């Protein structure tokens, strides 16, 4: 959770800077994602409906897509999980996903600049200029590791 949420006027300036109208729907979606980073679209719908009860699921999806295209949100694709969204954009960070509970944590770039990885091109391949390399670390968080140590050992039945 973000410690200091951006005031609505900061989001209004950001929306205008990318050529978007300032609407209560956009402001509500940005605020919901900022309050709860790595939210799924369904999480955002629930949070926004607490503020705008009549908003449709489709409207939230359209706003999420628009804000992602405009660069105010980042869509995160992690294994075995629906897409998630965050307001932390343009800083070349990555994510660590707990394979036990699914918690996602931000991880700063190891080398400090994009891309974090440089590919080795196969002979004859059509090379590209790489701008971003998304890295997803997978492992067990401290809580899941601790809980797995507390479980009684399983005895195999023969």
3D architecture notes:
The chain has 158 residues and is α+β, with helices and mostly antiparallel strands. The protein contains 5 helices and 6 strands, in the order H-H-E-H-H-E-E-E-E-E-H. It has helices at residues 8-17, 24-35, 41-51, 57-69, 142-150, and strands spanning 39-40, 74-76, 84-86, 94-98, 104-107, 136-139. Strand 2 (74-76) and strand 3 (84-86) form a beta hairpin. Helix 3 (41-51) packs across helix 4. It is globular, with a radius of gyration of 19 Å. The model has no long low-confidence stretch (mean pLDDT 88).
Keyword list:
three-stranded mixed sheet; 158 residues; 5 helices; 6 strands; alpha+beta; 35% helix; three-stranded antiparallel sheet; globular; 13% strand
What integer value in Å does the Rg equal? 19 Å
Quaternary organization: single chain
Terminal-residue CA separation: 48 Å
Please give the count of helices.
5
Work out the strand percent: 5-15%
How many beta-strand segments?
A: 6
- What letter string, H or E per element, gives the SSE order? HHEHHEEEEEH
């Amino acid at each position: 959770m973000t410690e200091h949420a951006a005031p609505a006027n900061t989001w209004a300036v950001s929306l205008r800077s990318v050529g978007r109208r300032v609407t209560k729907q956009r402001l509500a979606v940005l605020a919901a994602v900022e309050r709860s980073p790595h939210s799924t679209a369904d999480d955002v719908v629930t949070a926004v409906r607490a503020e705008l009860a009549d908003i449709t699921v489709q409207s939230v999806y359209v706003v999420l897509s628009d804000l992602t295209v405009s660069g105010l949100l980042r869509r995160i694709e992690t294994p075995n999980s629906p897409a998630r969204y965050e307001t932390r954009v343009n800083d070349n960070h990555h994510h660590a996903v707990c394979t036990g509970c699914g918690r996602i944590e931000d991880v700063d770039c190891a080398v400090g600049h994009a891309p974090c990885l440089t590919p080795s091109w196969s002979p004859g391949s059509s090379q590209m200029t790489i701008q971003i390399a998304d890295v997803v670390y997978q492992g067990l968080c401290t809580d899941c590791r601790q809980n797995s140590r507390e479980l009684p050992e399983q005895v195999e039945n023969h």
